[in-house]
Amino acid sequence: MIAIRFDRFGGPEVLTPVEVADPEPGPDELLVTVEAAGVNFADIHQADGSYLDPGQLPHIPGSEVVGRTDDGRRVLAKVSHGYAEQAVAKASAVVDIPEDLDAGAALALLVQGLTAWHLLRTAARLGTGETVVVHSAAGGVGSLAVQLAREFGAGRVWAQASTPEKRRLALDLGADAAVDYPLPERAEVILDAVGGELFDHALDSLASGGRLVTYGNSARTGFTPLDPARLSRLNAAVVGFWLRPTLAAPGAFAGPLKELLSLTAQGRLKPVVHPAYPLTEARRAHEDLLARRTTGKVVLRP
User: What is the pLDDT of residues 30-89, one digit of tens each?
Assistant: First the structure.
């Protein structure tokens, strides 16, 4: 089968299409013929060595696929090597999905959807009527967080995005306004995956008792030193969030994912999906994601 592999660490240029043996499922595992594979920033960090060590090379990235099991079920699955024509998943990490659900939309709900859900529910503990600011509001997580914040009772949802087109998309998804810093008013919740200068602006924009949730560093800059006295003066909190350990908690996976699938089926949640890339053009997908040329979920199709 064809897979995308990297044999050394680096930028998108290390991603190479190769012919490899078909994977063999073990006990309590299923073989999935891949219809579409999701692309995440975590894959970029794997390729540049942030998440892996040299002993794990060569490596096929990809943590999520939509596809068919040998018995014909159409499933959404968590995997370890998804950039391929076939992948192996634990039976416990497979969820059946409807035939009419777009593969990209389904993939958007797994990593990005669960991240947005937990950012608001678990990390920020959003309260009814609070103002939420979503950075990168047209991205995979941000576009869902804008919609879920409204669904979960936010009073106002403000979107921050890098281009006029992305700001319009966020408004179409239900944001009350597209904003830049300084904000019109202080906010109780700010969701940030950018870091750098934007993180610093956000911290100074929190209301008393506010929560700035940091869950990434797409600006790829050093993190801002955080003075505890500054937090005391602001009477605010900075909350770090990582999806992987969050999902290890009881009830953190199946229940939220079921809710996301239900909201999507009802038309109350509309995942944004970027036009798909062929599997063999994974390098271009990573380049576009890094350059912020994408909106919503990025998908590879074999």
Answer: 999 999 999 998 999 999 998 888 889 999 999 999 999 999 999 999 999 999 999 999
Is residue 156 located within the same domain as residue 222? yes
13-36: pLDDT as tens digits: 999 999 999 999 999 999 999 999
Q: What is the CA radius of gyration of the chain?
A: 19
My answer on whether 277 and 173 are in the same domain is no
Tell me: do 49 and 156 sit in the same domain. Answer: no
Question: Could you tell me the CATH number of the domain that includes residue 148?
Answer: 3.40.50.720
